[in-house]
């Protein structure tokens, strides 16, 4: 795990240990949302060697579960239009391989990042 990813994981774990009743950022606009925006601003695709490390760091910075990513990747609440939970798990663990263009679009939508941020990993 890269140093940046480890830092995000540590900060997230510390936050949840101090605030066990915190909700996901999408559900709040308080101090947690502000902290998340700050962490996310510090996360750059160029800081990571592998796409799965970058996506895990983004998800943790946004205080999202893998299920949140799956739901956010759907358009019009249609599960067939998003990324499945097993796919998200395989991608974040680094065993998925190279996703196709359609999957990349769905991943960008699910993680709430621009598609261009994934481009450097798939050239």
Question: Can you characterise this structure?
Answer:
- The chain has 123 residues and is an all-alpha fold.
- The protein has one domain.
- It has seven helices and no strands.
- Helix 1 runs parallel beside helix 3 (51-61) and helix 4 packs across helix 6 (101-111).
- The longest helix is centred in the N-terminal third of the chain and has 16 residues, at 3-18.
- The chain is globular and about 35 Å long.
- The protein starts with a helix and ends with a helix.
Name a few traits of the molecule.
mainly alpha, 57% helix
Cα-to-Cα separation, first versus last residue:
22 Å
Low-confidence stretches: 20-28
Per DSSP E runs of 2 or more residues, the count of β-strands stands at 0
Helix content: 55-70%
Taking all residues together, what is the mean pLDDT?
77
Largest sheet: none
Radius of gyration: 14 Å
The shape is: globular
The number of helices is 7
How much of the polypeptide forms β-strand, as a percent range? under 5%
Characterize the quaternary organization of these chains: single chain
Structural class: mainly alpha
Domain unit count: 1
């Amino acid at each position: 795990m890269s140093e940046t990813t480890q830092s995000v994981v540590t900060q997230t774990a510390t936050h949840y240990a101090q605030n066990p009743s915190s909700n996901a950022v999408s559900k709040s606009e308080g101090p947690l949302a502000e902290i998340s925006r700050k962490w996310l601003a510090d996360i750059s695709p160029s800081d990571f060697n592998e796409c799965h490390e970058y996506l895990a760091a983004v998800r943790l910075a946004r205080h999202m579960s893998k299920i949140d990513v799956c739901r956010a990747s759907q358009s019009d609440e249609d599960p067939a239009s998003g990324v499945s939970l097993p796919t998200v798990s395989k991608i974040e663990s680094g065993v998925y391989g190279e996703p196709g263009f359609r999957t990349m679009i769905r991943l960008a939508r699910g993680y709430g990042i621009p598609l261009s941020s994934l481009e450097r990993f798939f050239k």
